[in-house]
């Protein structure tokens, strides 16, 4: 009888003893880098999704070895962040001990299956020798004005007790625990991913990726071209700027809608006759996550700012001003001109009996019969009517002409906009990479000197989230209180930690050169092995890990750490 376990154990021991799958550094064979998305070492061990993907990559790696290729096929552990910490809290065991135990179990399972990994390159994102380079990258981002602190409305998970990036709350709920998120205004560290928006978008065409994944990133970045138009506030000498991609509909605009958080509201407060009612609506709207507010199926709500009027720059007509929670403060200018050719505007106008006017005629006569009676909303292109000198033009013809006409009057300018927002990079949790910043009351935020890296995460018994907008690290006085590296005065460490995505943004580079103490990766080895030839993982990471990793890689290219963008 064939004894599977005995035979498998024999050959697994042989592979280990003879370093069968250890990558040869100076091979004359053609190199091929096969990478799996490294796992969170959860307490449950490997799941079927892991084994499915890892089996596929292992089969391909073995096939290529038999074809004579020199294969780099490594494995490691994405062990910082919420998954590990939440499991530790659940089991009442310190995260460091949980990770150590779970990694050992994962490795045992992977070895028992017989995967052909080069374990000499094993990495763990919680290893100080690894995260010193994660911290180093953050310092370089800070030096290049791509890491900054800002007070912003954020997604707060009441269960995980931490801030979530927009990408982590895409459905209005926490991607880890599925609790409904709420909005809070907090000071957060941000990474300026928007500075790379055009490159992240245009370089998608150079990637040999599934079209589905590229489309997901394209939609997430959400580039649009249009115009910024100025609406004068009557009798105030103020202007409200509106971003639009449909300036061809401006002649049909009959009211203006502001986001409840719009900066101008406080300035107009004294003239708003129903301010108490407006203020109640504002407070309610601020607690709703963006996805709930923009859900097309959600009933449209709003309130008029009584006493406030604006002038339509195209028609000269006075228009009422409303606020509605479907207008977001962080997209465009936080204001829209509303008309009969946008579904949300149309529904809101019908609900509140706001007059509507049609300015785009569709080609379909049956549809036109419905549109002109305001029985249905037409939001497509067509022929302009009720649009003064632009009557008879198609939407495509009219847009540049209307922009030029309003530019001449100094009331508009061309503008490109993105849905992509800067990355919220701080978390109010213990189990993450410490952010290498020192806060000085005199000098402001100061970078930790590179010679002091890594800033090690201190061991604490009480690591559970406090429920306050700060991490448990804030209570460790001995660790927090330091001298300012600039003036030498009393200062404090940043106590928020990095998100779970930080260590996985660049791990594929460290596999190339995991023992290097002087550089993130050597120039020679990076040129030999980069980029990854085959990367296997789940599509759910398309607008999180894969987008973040592309951003960091392009930055590392800009500072000459890697040779290709």
UniProtKB/TrEMBL annotation:
GO biological process terms on file: leucyl-tRNA aminoacylation
Family from the record: Belongs to the class-I aminoacyl-tRNA synthetase family.
Membrane-spanning segments: none
Domain Methionyl/Leucyl tRNA synthetase, first and last residues per copy: 37-181
Enzyme class at the top of the EC tree: ligase
Residues covered by the Leucyl-tRNA synthetase editing domain: 218-406
Keyword Protein biosynthesis attached: yes
Sorted UniProt keywords: Aminoacyl-tRNA synthetase, ATP-binding, Ligase, Nucleotide-binding, Protein biosynthesis
Name by which UniProt lists this protein: Leucine--tRNA ligase
């Amino acid at each position: 009888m064939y004894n599977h376990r005995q035979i498998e154990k024999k050959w697994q021991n042989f592979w280990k003893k003879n370093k069968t799958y250890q990558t040869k550094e100076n091979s004359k064979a053609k190199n091929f880098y096969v990478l799996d998305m490294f796992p969170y070492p959860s307490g449950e061990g490997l799941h079927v999704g892991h084994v499915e993907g890892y089996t596929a990559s292992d089969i391909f790696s073995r096939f290529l070895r038999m074809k004579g290729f020199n294969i780099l096929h490594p494995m490691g552990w994405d062990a910082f962040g919420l998954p590990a910490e939440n499991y530790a809290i659940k089991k009442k065991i310190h995260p460091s001990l949980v990770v150590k135990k779970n990694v050992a179990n994962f490795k045992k399972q992977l070895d028992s299956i017989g995967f052909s990994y080069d374990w000499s390159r094993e990495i763990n994102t919680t290893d100080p020798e690894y995260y010193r380079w994660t911290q180093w990258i953050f310092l370089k981002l800070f030096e290049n004005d791509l890491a900054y602190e800002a007070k912003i409305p954020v997604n707060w998970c009441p269960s995980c007790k931490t801030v979530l990036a927009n990408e982590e709350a895409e459905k209005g709920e926490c991607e880890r625990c599925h609790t409904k998120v709420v909005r809070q205004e907090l000071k957060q560290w941000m990474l300026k991913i928007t500075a790379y928006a055009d490159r992240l978008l245009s370089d998608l065409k150079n990637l040999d990726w599934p079209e589905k994944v590229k489309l997901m990133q394209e939609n997430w970045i959400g580039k649009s071209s249009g115009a910024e138009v100025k609406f004068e506030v009557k009798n105030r000498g103020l202007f409200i700027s509106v971003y639009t991609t449909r300036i061809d509909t401006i002649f049909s605009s009959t009211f203006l809608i502001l986001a409840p958080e719009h900066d101008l509201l406080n300035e107009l407060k004294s003239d708003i006759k129903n301010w108490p009612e407006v203020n109640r609506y504002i407070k309610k709207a601020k607690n709703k996550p963006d996805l709930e507010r923009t859900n097309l199926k959600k009933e449209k709500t709003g309130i008029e700012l009584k006493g406030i009027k604006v002038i339509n720059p195209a028609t000269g007509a006075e228009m009422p001003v409303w606020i509605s929670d479907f207008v977001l403060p962080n997209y465009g200018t936080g204001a829209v001109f509303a008309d009969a050719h946008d579904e949300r505007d149309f529904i809101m106008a019908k609900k509140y009996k706001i007059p509507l006017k049609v300015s785009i005629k569709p080609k379909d006569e049956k549809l036109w019969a419905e549109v002109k009676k305001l029985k249905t909303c037409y939001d497509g292109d067509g022929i302009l009517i009720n649009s003064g000198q632009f009557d008879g033009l198609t939407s495509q013809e009219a847009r540049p002409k209307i922009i030029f006409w309003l530019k001449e009057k100094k009331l508009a300018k061309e503008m490109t906009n993105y849905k992509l927002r800067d990355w919220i990079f701080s978390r109010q949790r213990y189990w993450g990479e410490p952010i290498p910043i020192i806060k000085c009351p005199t000098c402001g935020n100061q970078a930790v000197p590179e010679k002091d890296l890594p800033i090690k995460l201190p061991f604490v018994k009480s690591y559970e989230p406090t429920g306050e907008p700060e991490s448990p690290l804030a209570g460790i006085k001995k660790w927090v209180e330091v001298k300012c590296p600039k003036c030498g005065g009393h200062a404090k460490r940043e106590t928020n930690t990095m998100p779970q995505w930080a260590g996985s943004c660049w791990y594929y580079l460290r596999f190339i050169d995991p023992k290097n103490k002087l550089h993130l990766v050597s120039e020679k080895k990076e040129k030999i092995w980069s980029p990854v030839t085959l990367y296997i993982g789940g599509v759910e990471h398309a607008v999180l890990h894969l987008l973040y990793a592309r951003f960091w890689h392009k930055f590392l290219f800009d500072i000459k750490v890697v040779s290709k963008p």
